[in-house]
Queue: 4 jobs
Job 1
Amino acid sequence: MAVMSAMLVSASCAQATETIEWPDGKKAAIALTYDDALDTHLDAALPQLDAHGFKATFYLTLENEGFLNRTEEWRAVAENGHELGNHTLFHPCQSSLPGRDWVQPEADLDAYSVARMVREIALTNQLLTLFDGRSSRTFAYPCGDSTAGGESYVDAIRPLFDGARGVASYSPDATYDFYQVSTYGPEDVSGDMLIDYAEGVLEEGGFGSFTFHGIGGEYLTVSPEAHAELLDWLDAHRDEIWIATFQDIVTYTKDAG
Ligand SMILES: [Zn+2]
C-alpha cells in the first residue's frame, strides 16, 4: 500500500504520520490505553477520563480477576464509548527474555505455536463480541512480545484486527505498520513527564499512545495525581490534539491516506 510506505517513522516518541490531516484541524492524535483489566482502571482512571469526556482503550486480559469480578462495569465502559481491546485470555509472554522469571510454563509464549496463539486471540475476540456487541477492535501484544514458539505472529493476526499496539522501541527507518504501533509505557513518573511525551507528539504532528497499567496501585504504577495532570493538560489542548480510542485513530489514519 503506497500510503503505508510513505508514512515513515520520523519522530522519537510518536509514529509520525506526515501525510495525514487530522480531523477538525487538529495537529496530532493521542490514544490513552490501559492494559490487563486492572481494578484501578475502573476505580481511578475511568472517573478521570469520564470527567473530561475522553474515550480510551482498555486492553482486557479475560482471565484476570479485574475482568471476571467486574464484568457489568466493563460492559458499561463499552456502552459509554470506550474501546474494549483484546489482550488475550491468558497473557502469554516469552520466558526466554531477561527479567521473565515470573512467566508461568503454561503461559510461556516460547512454548506456544503461532496457531495456538491465533486460536487464543480469536476466541478472545469472539468473547468480547458477545460482551460488547462490536465486530472489530484492536489488539495489544502481551509484554510487547510478537513471537510464539520463536516465530512472529504479527502477520497471522492482521485479518483479526483494525490495528495493534506494540511496545517496540523506535526505529528511525521503520515503515509505519498499523499492527506494530509504538507506544510509551510510563511507570512511577510525574505528571510533567507524561506531559513531555504528549508535547512531543503534538510538536511532531504524529500518532502517540500511552500504555498505562496500575493507577495509584497494582503494578507499573502511575499516581492518580500524575494521571490527572496529564488529562488536565490534554483537555487544555483538545483543540490541537485528537484524543480518541486506539481503534478510532488507527482506523482514521488507515483511511486518511
Ligand atoms: Zn499486559
Job 2
Amino acid sequence: MVGKKQSSGRSRPRRADAASGRRRRPKRGAGGSEEATPARIQSWVDDPASPWGLMERPAPVLDARPLAFSISGEAIPVGVYDPGTAGFRHWTAADSLRRTADLWAPLLGRHRVKRWQPAETLPVTLDAGSDLNAYYDRTQLVFFHSGRGKAAVYSGESPDIVCHETGHACLDALRPDLWDAPFIEIAAFHESFGDITAMLAALALPQVRESVLPALVANKASPLSRIAEQLGGAMRRFHPAAVESDCLRNASNRWKYVAPESLPASAPATELSAEPHAFSRVFTGAFHDLLSRMLRDTGPSPSADDLVAVAAAAARLVIDAVAAAPVQPDFFAQVGARLIDVDAAVFAGRYGAVITDVLVGRRILTAATAPGDRSDAATGKRAAAAGGPRQTLEINAAPYGLSTGGILVDVPRAFGAGAAAGRRGVAATDPTAAMERSADRFIGVLFENQRIELPARIRAKGIAASAPAAGGRATHVLSRTDGHLRLSRLRFDGVGW
Ligand SMILES: [Zn+2]
C-alpha cells in the first residue's frame, strides 16, 4: 500500500493559506530556499468532510515520550503532502496521535501513568485493509480504508477517528480495569471518552477555538460536536438509519439517561439503545453541555482565551473523575458524582452548580444524590476499586444457546452502603445481584449485536449460533476455562455495528 504510490504521490513542500485552506506553491528561488523552511506538515483540522478543511502544522514528534507511537511501514519524510496521498494520510494521523497524547499525558502523569497499557510505544497500523472502522486492541491502534480512488475513505485520515481511538488507549492506560468490566455503561463511557477526546484534541487548535466559539456559547451543533462526518457519510450509504444525518455521532444532542439495561440492543440512530456507541451519546452530550455552560459562566462575552481555560478545566475534571470512579453498573453516575468532588477539591467548587445542573438535566444524577461525598478523587489517587478485592460472577449461558456451564465475569467485591450505593438506587439493595443483572444484559446486548466470538468447536443454538467467526467484528471473546466460559474483551472500535 505504501511505497510506490507514496513516492509518486508525494508533493513538494508548499505553503498553505491557513484561512482558506487553499494551497499555493512557494516561490522557488535559485534552489536551496526549502532548507530554511521549518519542518511542516499538512493535515485536516477536524475531519476530511468537515468545513474546517486543511491546516499546516509543525511536524509532530511521533516517538516523543511519554506516550510514544510508531506507525508501521516505511518512514515517510516530513513534508506538506497533498490530500489523497499516503504521505498526507501519514502526517495527518501523526498530528492527531501526537496532539491527543500531548492533551492527556500531563493529566495522566498526575496519576503516575507515564506509558501505554501494553508498552512504552504504541504501534499504529494506518491501513489494515478494507473496512469502515478503526480499533484499539491493547496491542496497537488499527485503521482501515473503504472504497477506491477518489471515493476511498481512510479512517486513519480523520482526526476525529484517530483522536477517538487514541482516547481509548489513554483511558486504558489510566484505568486498565475497565477493559473487561462487564457493564454497558462502562463500555459506553469508554466510547464517550473517545469522542470527548476528539473534541478536546480539536480545541487544542487555535483556529478551532476561534471558529467554534459562537456555536459553543449557544450550545449548538458545530463541526466540533459532529464526530467523524466523512465515515458517517460513508456508513449512511450502507446503513442509512444507523448514523446521524450529518456525522457518525453528534455531541450536541438531547439524549437523557435511562438505565441501559432496559433499552433494546440496537436501534436506529434516532433512538437510544444499549449498544455502547449509541448509549455513549448521553454522557458525550452532557460533556458538550458542560463545555458550553462553563464557557458562558466566564462572563458576558466569552473569548477564545476563555475557551482555553474551560477546555483545560474540563479535561482535568474528566480525568480525575474517571480515575476515581469505581467499576459499577451505574458508571455514568459514578463519574458524574466525582466530577462534583473533583471540582470541589481542585477548583474550589467553581463549576459545581453547572456540573450538577447539567448532570441532573441529563438524568445522569438525581437532584437528591448529586452532591457526592468527598471521595478519593480529591487526593488524586487511583480509584480504590481498581486494585480492590474482586469476585467472579457466573452468568447463566443457557438463555444464549450455550450448554457449556456458565459465563464467568470478574467484578469488584460488592460495595456496602458506601459511596456508590444510593447514588441512583441501582446498587442500594443487593449490589451483587445488581451487578449480575447488568452483566447478564451486557452479554445479551453483545450477542444480539453479534459482538462475541466463540471458542472453536462449541455447540451453540439460539442467538449464540450467529456469533461472528474469529477475525470478524467481535469486540469480545469467550474462552474455555474449567468447564466454564470466560468473557474477555478483544478491542474497542469506532463504530457500533
Ligand atoms: Zn470507540
Job 3
Amino acid sequence: MKTAVSPLLPTYTPYPFLLVSGQGERVCDDRGRTYLDFYGGHCVASTGHCHPAVAAAIADQARKLIFYSAAAQLPVRDRAAQALVEFAGAGMASVFFCNSGAEANESALKVAIKLTGRKHLVAFQGAFHGRSLLALSVTDSPALRKDYEALLAPTRFLPFADSAALDAADFSQAAAVIVEPIQSMAGVKTASARWFAALREKCTRAGTLLIFDEVQSGIGRVGAPFAAQLYGVAPDLITCAKGMASGVPMGGMLMNSALASALKPGDLGSTFGGGPLACAALIATLKVIVEEKLVERASNLAKHIRSRLADGVVQKVRGAGLLLGLEAGTQAKALKTHLLNQHILVGGSDDPNVLRLMPPLTVADQAVEKLLACIADFQAEGVAA
Ligand SMILES: Cc1ncc(COP(=O)(O)O)c(C=O)c1O
C-alpha cells in the first residue's frame, strides 16, 4: 500500500491555523481570527503586511512590466539600486540583486574567493548564513551540514564576540570573514563595537574581505539602516534579503567601490535577480521606512520594550531595535505557547531559553502594549507552574 504524501512537501511545522490574509502587524486565519505578528512572517514584513504603498507599487509595476532579466536595462532596477545604496551608507557603492539571503551570501563568498585567490573562509560559532553550499559551509549547524560535509568549503569557526580568540586567529589564508552582526537564530547574540573594530582591523591587515550578513539585521530593523552603522564598522560587503522588498523575494549584495570596480559583466548572474516587481517593492519599502521614520521607531520601541521587561519571566532582553531576544530560561517554551493561545506570534531560536521578536517596523503601540500585558499575565498567573 502506498503511503499518502502531501502535495506540498512539508518542510516546517506550521502554526495550527490556516493563514489567509494580513494587514499591518496582524494576520488573519480562514475563520476570521486575527493574530499579532511579532514574528514578522520570518523577519520579512518590514513595512507590515500589505502596506498600501507597497501593494500599490507592486500592482502598478505588474501592469507595466512583470519581468525582464538583466539582459535589459530597466529604469526601475536602476532606481532601486540607487535608492538602496543611498539608504545603506556604510561605504556601500554598488549592489548585485538576487533572490534570497542564501544567494546573497553565496555571491559575496564567491566574490571574496575570486578576488583574493584564497579558498579558506572564517565564520563564527552559532552562525546561520543559509542552505546553499557555500552559505552552508559557513553555517554552524551539524544537523544541516552532515550529509554534505565533503562538498563544503574549508571554514574555521571562531567563538563569536571573543577578543582573545580573534587576537589568536590567523587570517592569512582566509578569503573572507562572514559575520551576522547580531546572531539571530543563535538566540539574538551581540558583540561590542570594540570587537567589531578589532575584526575590521584584522581583516584589513590580512587582506581578507569582511562580509556582514545583514539578512535579518538590515534595512532599518536595528535602529540604523544597517547594523554596520550601529557598530561603526565599514565592511567590504553587506548582504541583505528578508524585509528589503516587504516580502517580495529579493536578496542584495552591497559592496564598496573597490570591489565593484574589480568585477566585470559575467562574473555574477541570476535570471530573476532584480526583477521589476521586486525592485518596485524595494523602492516603495525604503520610501515607507524613511517617510514613516521607522528606523527611529525601531530604536524607540526597543527602549520601551526593554524598560517594561526589565525583570520577571523575561530576565534579559538582547539585541537591538526590533530584532530582540527575550531570555526566559526554562519558561521560554511555555511563554511562547501562552502567547500563541492569546493570538500573538513570536519566534523561537536555537537557544531554547530565548524567544525572538522581529515584528513589522510599523507595529502599532497598542499591539506592543498587548504583547507586554500578555507577558505580564503569564507572570502573574504563573502559567508555567
Ligand atoms: C542571517 C541569515 N542569513 C541568511 C539567511 C538565508 O536566507 P534565505 O532563507 O532567504 O536564503 C537567513 C535566513 O533565515 C538568515 O537569518
Job 4
Amino acid sequence: MTTTAPFGLLLDVDGPIASPIERRIAIDSILDDLLTLGAAGIPIAFITGRSDAFMREQVIARLVAGGLDARAHVFGVFEKGGCWAPVTPQGLGALEIDEALAIPDAVRLAVEGLARERFADTMFVDEAKHVMISLEASTDVTPAEYQEAQSRYQDEVFALMSGLELGVRYGDREHPDADGEVPWRIDPTIISTDVESVHLDKDRGADRALDWFAARGITAERWWSAGDSRSDYLMADAVHARGIPVTHLDVRPADGMLERPFEVATEPGLVNDAAGAAFLRRKVSELP
Ligand SMILES: [Mg+2]
C-alpha cells in the first residue's frame, strides 16, 4: 500500500536549517515546525555534506528531545550520499556506509596531515567523516583570512594528490590517474574544503532518500527541496528525473539562481535559516 503525502521535503542542513554562522539550529520555530510536519506524515529527508555525528548532535538529538512522533517518516543522508540512516524517536538508526566511495586511508592521512601541520590556524579536520575528507574553517578567523588560506591549501592538496598519481579534479584543473580516470575532486564551500569521490553529490543523496521512502510505501504529490548552494539544485533534479513534480527553494539566490525545467522559488527579503524558517512555517499552515 502506498501513502501519498501532499508534499515531501528534501532539506540541505547548513543554510536553510542550521545557521551558517553559528553552525547549529538557531531559530527554534524550525524545530517545532519539523516536528509538526513529521507528526502530520510529511516525509522529511535531511540531505547534507555533514557527518552523521554532527547531525546526531545538532539536529537529531533536538528532534528526539522535542518528541519526534513515532509515525513520522524522517531519513538522513550524510556526507553527500556517502552514508545514511533512518531518524527515529529513539535517535539515529543503524548507519549504512558506501565503502566503495570512501577516500583511501593513505590519502586521508596525507591530506588531513597537511591541514594539521600547516593550516591549523585557519581550519580543522572534521574527524567524524567516514567517506569524505572535510577541512572546516575555524570559527575565530575572518571569512577573508579563511578564503586566502583555503585557496593555498587547495592548491597544495591538488599538487599532493597529483603527485600520488591519483586522478583528481579541482575547479577547471584535472589530473587523470594512470587509467585516464578522475575519481576524486576537491570541492570548496563557503566554510570548508571537501575532498571526495566525484560520485558523491546531492542528487545521489536525494535518490537514496526517495528510494527509502518508496520502500516504506511513502510518496508525495510534490517534493520541495531547499538549500543554499548551487549543488543543492541537484536534489530537485533527482526528483524531476523521476517525473514527480518538484520545486526548489534557493535560500542564497544572490550566488546566482540556476535555470531549471521546474519551479525555483525564493523567500523574498530572507536568506539562509531565516528563509528556511519562513518556508517551514508556511508549509505547516498549508497542512490539510
Ligand atoms: Mg548548505
